[in-house]
Amino acid sequence: MRLPHSVFVRAVLLGSAAAIVLPSMVGLPPTPALARPAPDGFADLAEKLLPAVVNISTTQTIKPNDRRGEAGPEMPVFPPGSPFEQFFKDFMNRNRQGQGGRGEQAPERKAQSLGSGFIIDPSGLVVTNNHVIDGADEITVTLHDNTVLKATLVGRDESGDIALLRVKPDKPLPAVAFGDSDKARVGDWVIAIGNPFGLGGSVTAGIVSARGRNIHQGPYDYFLQTDAAINQGNSGGPLFDMDGNVVGMNTAIYSRSGGSVGIGFSIPSNMVKTVVAQLRDVGHPVRGWLGVRIQQVTPDIAESLGLKEPTGAMIAGVNDDGPADKAKIRNGDIILKFNGQTVKDMPSLPRIVAENEVGKQVPIILWRDGKEVTVQATLAEKPSDSELAAADPGAKSGPAGKTTTLTGLGLKIAPITPELKDKFQLADDLKGVVIVDVAPDSPGSERGLKPGDVIAEVQQGAVTSPEDVVKRIDAVRKENRKSVLILIQGRDGLRWVPLPLTSAKDKDKKPG
User: Fold this and answer.
1) What is the rounded (10 degree) CA torsion for 368, 372, 376, 377?
2) In the prediction, which pLDDT does 211 show?
3) How many C-beta atoms surround the C-beta of residue 504 within 10 A?
4) Is 131 labeled as catalytic in the residue annotation?
5) Domain at 288-388: CATH architecture
6) 445 catalytic, yes or no?
7) 417 and 430 Cβ atoms separated by less than 8 Å
8) Do domains 288-388 and 404-509 have the same CATH topology?
9) Catalytic residue among 131, 202, 333, 437
10) Which CATH class is domain 404-509?
11) What is the pLDDT of residues 190-248, one digit of tens each?
12) Which is the catalytic residue, given 57, 116, 157, 161?
């Protein structure tokens, strides 16, 4: 930034640190920006910590494709930096090209993989990423002194990508302790120790580059970002602070080449510590659960509901008899605060809820009907993914019978009749109005609406007929709002969709 000529910059030495001082332009005392001195080296710290960091190797049996004449199995999806990723690419290329397109079965193969981990208990408890050992038939831990031990799985957290292993050593092992990741500040020195590319114990140094990163790898993303070099094989290894405490577990990298470009991600130690304790005690993670489906609050949604800023998480569905249902939370509510914590956006809510204890009653501040409302909810334990899985009603395109056109939105709607239920495969208990046609390049098409989607609510009010929909949309137009909010039941479940509204003149000129 270029400064006016009247402002000058001078460097002030404070011991071995430098401070940049900008004289105030408004008469206030200048505030120095202090920097702690860089360490002379990391050798003493690395020597102390290296024995507690282990190499993890796994063996996985890859079974041949038993479907003749087809292209073969799909590429499994692994988190960035997963050691299994390159193997699967090579394996499938050989399987497809080597068979000459004849669809012959390949022989059964053994996949070997390398990762990292760290010892947290002298008796032999080892922490690593779940994706390092996922699907493994055998797990082997190699200590810093090259001692090789067979490992067993104590428990895993697939959503959080954390796993706990146990080995049985002949003597107590060197172990490291968890630090407080909440105290890790952007700019703090850190060192990463792991097993990059299977080379063995390696040490890299850098700083904490950012906090709270969401890289869309899971519902609880809240990574520390670091520029300490992290490569494939570092997964599961520890990120240490300058006191030798674990402040993160290295999990993923951002890279187009597969090598480090200075953007690595570590699960914060406070999250790892909590999950590991649960895996050790009960064998699975125990997280608070509210029982809702949520979506992002967009500027259009915020404007349609009178919310000043697009903040919070919008309720797009409530599980029957779940904590939210019992607390009278309903579709269309926006969660602004949860147990005193501000919900900045949709992705942050699952993590905030999960961090609270099961059985705890928490206050929740909602945005409802244009004002803030507070409810109390008692959290339950999050069910497994299989327990939560439920079939959504399907939808297929097809011609409609008697329809009503929503002018300016590009939609044709109709009551839910037995014929339309059969045509679109709608559930018997589904209520609302079905969309039977969507005009190309219309607001409805641009927002992803499809024939077979069902309009359940308009502007947070239930609708049972096309007349209800028209009346509610007209009422919103009279309020001069820019968009109307509709609740859609579609192939992917419930979701709120803001549809832009045209002016009265445009409404007359543009038939739906």
Assistant:
1) 50
2) 93
3) 11
4) yes
5) Roll (2.30)
6) no
7) no
8) yes
9) 131
10) mainly beta
11) 999 998 887 888 999 999 999 988 887 778 888 999 999 998 889 999 999 999 999 99
12) 161
* pLDDT tens-digit map of 253-295: 887 777 788 899 999 999 999 999 999 999 999 999 999 988 8
| Spatial distance between the Cα atoms of 418 and 422, rounded to a whole number of angstroms | 6
- Rounded Cα–Cα distance for residues 297 and 141 (Å): 46
> Once rounded to an integer, what is the mean pLDDT over residues 446-455?
91
pLDDT at residue 1 in the model: 38
User: Cβ of 267: how many Cβ atoms within 10 Å?
Assistant: 26
Q: Cα(355)–Cα(274) distance, rounded to whole angstroms?
A: 9
Q: Which of the following is catalytic: 159, 235, 266, 269?
A: 235
- Joined together, the tokens standing for residue 260 give 């480090």
Residue 15, judged by CB atoms within 10 A of its CB (0-12, 13-18, 19+), counts as exposed
Beta strand spans in 259-327 (E): 264-268, 288-289, 292-296, 313-318
Q: For the chain, give every domain's residue range.
A: 1-34, 43-65+81-97+107-286, 288-388, 404-509
C-alpha separations of 249 from 74, 139, 271, 319, 335 in Å: 29, 19, 10, 33, 30
Tokens of 321: 């008899």
DSSP-assigned beta bridge partners for residue 267: 249
In order, the DSSP letters of 10-56 are EEEEETTEEEEE---SSSPPP--B--PPPPS-SHHHHHHHGGGEEEE
Task: Tally Cβ neighbours within 10 Å of residue 335.
Answer: 26
> With DSSP H G I counted as helix, E B as strand and the rest as coil, what are the percentages for the chain, rounded to 5?
20, 35, 45
- Other CB atoms within a 10 A radius of the CB of residue 269 amount to 27
Q: What is the CATH number of domain 43-65+81-97+107-286?
A: 2.40.10.120
Q: What mean pLDDT is reported for the chain? A: 81
> Taking Cα atoms as reference points, which of 393, 388, 361 lies closest to residue 376?
361
161 belongs to the catalytic site: yes
What is the distance between the alpha carbons of residues 20 and 26, in angstroms, rounded to a whole number?
18
